[in-house]
Amino acid sequence: MKTRITELLGIEYPIIQGGMAWVAEYHLAAAVSEAGGLGLIGAASAPPEIVREQIREAKKLTDKPIGVNVMLLNPNAEEVAKVIVEEGIKVVTTGAGNPGKFMELWKSAGVKVIPVVASVAMAKMMERAGADAIIAEGTEAGGHIGSITTMVLLPQIVDAVSIPVVGAGGVADERGFAAAMMLGADAVQMGTIFITAKESIVHSNYKQKVITAKDIDSEVTGRSTGHPVRSLRNKMTREYLKLEEEGASFEELEYLTLGSLRKAVVDGDVINGTIMAGQIAGLVKEEKSCEEIIHGIISRAEKLLKM
Ligand code: TUI
Questions:
Q1: 71 CA to middle of ligand 1, Å?
Q2: Domain ranges of the chain
Q3: Using a 6 Å cutoff on CB, does residue 145 contact ligand 1?
Q4: What is the pLDDT of residues 235-271, one digit of tens each?
Q5: What's the Rg (C-alpha) of the chain?
Q6: Which of 60, 95, 180, 262: disulfide with 116, CB 3.0–4.6 Å?
Q7: Nearest-angstrom CA–CA distance, 162 and 247
Q8: Do residues 13 and 6 make contact, with C-beta atoms less than 8 angstroms apart?
């Protein structure tokens, strides 16, 4: 399946893995790339030397292209940006902000830059700044989110820019994939389904929460802080929302969630930890390998799109 994105990135299938904090480490990234998609290491809040090590480990497992996701709220983002160039990474996705100040560094090193955006205005700004493609992420997505749905965001961004657009938020099977392509996307980005991948190192308690989640089981916390985050409902989200309702300060809320994603992903504490996932978790029913996920979606989507 050839699209502008498969051509741009030199990958077999137009499927990009989300840059999920703690989840997107080298085993998952390498497995997604080996299966023909684009695997990414999520730099999240990791120190630059950890990112370097993750890149090197991924390269031991695959010769195919892998990318790095830079989370722009990370105070180490600048050093991470340099590590990416030093380690010869050729594609970067960014999240939670404007990557403008790193554009020159990356472009002059031949790195393809694909910012995640949640609005048309940001998409246009990124195209002007030299982005090679855009990921349009709807509010259905897990983690840090914007406010409009993939269904309405994606076609509006497709019309507003001429670079390729990747659809994200709410995609976990061939129907979502085909729908995004019909809305004008040249690829999709998926996160939630890869949390449950066999190659994902996420704690089994977390995977089980995703697999057993229903359609209405996610909650958005942090609206009051300007950083809304979607995760599965548990004691943590209830406490957070109660504090927000009581008008708690930014510091108080930050303190509650300090290290909470790690707690869920690494320790399997799905009661006090943060279980970031998209609304599509309700559709994810079993653990599969990255190859089964990607090849299954592509082969079934090819039939749907030929109808
Ligand atoms: O970045 C994500 N998802 C994330 S980042 C993350 S780590 C985190 N944890 C707690 C609080 C905040 C972050 C967990 N999940 N997705 C990509 C994404 N980017 N979604 C929305 C945006 C976005 C939002 C605003 C991109 C640009 C933007 O521009 C605002 C500006 O700077 O003008």
A1: 7
A2: 4-200+283-305, 214-276
A3: yes
A4: 999 999 999 999 999 999 999 999 999 999 999 999 9
A5: 18
A6: 95
A7: 43
A8: yes
